[in-house]
């Protein structure tokens, strides 16, 4: 597990969602608290991602057989504005979401047990996993750029189910996991 991941509860403002939206005073969220939600983090050396033995080990241990790289920037991502809007819609997946930030910055917002938003700031070297069934969303920060490796067990699954998606077994499993932790 990594160090240096910053997370906090966010305000309910609808202003530019690329801003940090920290509460005043800030209410930080620890890695331990994130782990109780099923969110895990490693800090790796993104400069050597192509040959990194630590990344290879994680992929082997977790069964992350598929990998691709996405660059989210206006000039590289087709339908950039549309995609960003879609990523920021609250949704869940039937599989874990695994992202490794190779460059730039991004925010992952996840819901806690009381349905409050927690913002997780990721930067170069952060590998983060969000469990299947957790409601979440994604946005860039004001730098408007990130390059990320997307990892999957087996083939890639891009299907997002926007909230409400409470009828899925995976959502029920996730809620049971929350009750137990």
UniProtKB/TrEMBL annotation:
Catalytic activity reported: 1,2-dihydroxy-5-(methylsulfanyl)pent-1-en-3-one + O2 = 3-(methylsulfanyl)propanoate + CO + formate + 2 H(+); 1,2-dihydroxy-5-(methylsulfanyl)pent-1-en-3-one + O2 = 4-methylsulfanyl-2-oxobutanoate + formate + 2 H(+)
A Gene Ontology cellular-component term: cytoplasm
Record-listed Fe(2+) binding positions: 91, 93, 97, 136
Statement: the UniProt record of this protein carries the keyword Heme: no
Keyword Coiled coil in annotation: no
Coiled coil: none
Top-rank taxon, per record: Eukaryota
Cofactor: Ni(2+); Fe(2+)
GO BP of this protein: L-methionine salvage from methylthioadenosine
Family annotation (CDD domains): cupin_ARD
EC identifiers of the protein: 1.13.11.53, 1.13.11.54
Localization per Swiss-Prot or TrEMBL: Cytoplasm; Nucleus; Cell membrane
Pathway membership, UniProt: Amino-acid biosynthesis; L-methionine biosynthesis via salvage pathway; L-methionine from S-methyl-5-thio-alpha-D-ribose 1-phosphate: step 5/6
Keywords noted in UniProt: Amino-acid biosynthesis, Cell membrane, Cytoplasm, Dioxygenase, Iron, Membrane, Metal-binding, Methionine biosynthesis, Nickel, Nucleus, Oxidoreductase
UniProt-listed InterPro entries: ARD (IPR004313), ARD_euk (IPR027496), RmlC-like_jellyroll (IPR014710), RmlC_Cupin_sf (IPR011051)
Sites where the protein binds Ni(2+): 91, 93, 97, 136
Cofactor binding notes: Binds either 1 Fe or Ni cation per monomer. Iron-binding promotes an acireductone dioxygenase reaction producing 2-keto-4-methylthiobutyrate, while nickel-binding promotes an acireductone dioxygenase reaction producing 3-(methylsulfanyl)propanoate.
Membrane topology annotation: Peripheral membrane protein
Alphabetized GO MF terms: acireductone dioxygenase (Ni2+-requiring) activity; acireductone dioxygenase [iron(II)-requiring] activity; iron ion binding; nickel cation binding
Protein purpose: Catalyzes 2 different reactions between oxygen and the acireductone 1,2-dihydroxy-3-keto-5-methylthiopentene (DHK-MTPene) depending upon the metal bound in the active site. Fe-containing acireductone dioxygenase (Fe-ARD) produces formate and 2-keto-4-methylthiobutyrate (KMTB), the alpha-ketoacid precursor of methionine in the methionine recycle pathway. Ni-containing acireductone dioxygenase (Ni-ARD) produces methylthiopropionate, carbon monoxide and formate, and does not lie on the methionine recycle pathway.
Subunit details: Monomer.
Annotated family: Belongs to the acireductone dioxygenase (ARD) family.
Protein name according to UniProt: Acireductone dioxygenase
Organism listed in the record: Myripristis murdjan (pinecone soldierfish)
Taxonomic classification: Eukaryota, Metazoa, Chordata, Craniata, Vertebrata
Gene from which this protein is expressed: ADI1
């Amino acid at each position: 597990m990594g160090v240096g991941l910053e997370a906090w509860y966010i305000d309910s403002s609808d202003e530019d969602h690329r801003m940090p939206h920290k509460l005043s005073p800030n209410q930080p969220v620890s890695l331990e608290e994130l782990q109780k939600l099923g969110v895990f983090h490693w800090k790796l050396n993104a400069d050597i991602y192509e040959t990194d033995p630590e990344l290879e080990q994680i992929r082997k241990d977790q069964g992350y057989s598929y990998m691709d790289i996405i660059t989210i920037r206006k000039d590289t991502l087709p339908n950039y504005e549309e995609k960003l809007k879609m990523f920021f819609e609250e949704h869940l997946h039937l599989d874990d979401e695994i992202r490794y930030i190779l460059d730039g910055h991004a925010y992952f917002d996840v819901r806690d047990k009381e349905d409050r938003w927690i913002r997780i700031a990721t930067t170069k070297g952060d590998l983060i996993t969000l469990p299947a069934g957790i409601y979440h969303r994604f946005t860039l920060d004001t730098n408007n750029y990130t390059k990320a490796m997307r990892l999957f067990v087996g083939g890639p699954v891009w299907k997002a189910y926007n909230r409400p998606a409470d009828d899925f077994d995976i959502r029920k499993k996730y809620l049971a996991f929350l009750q137990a932790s």
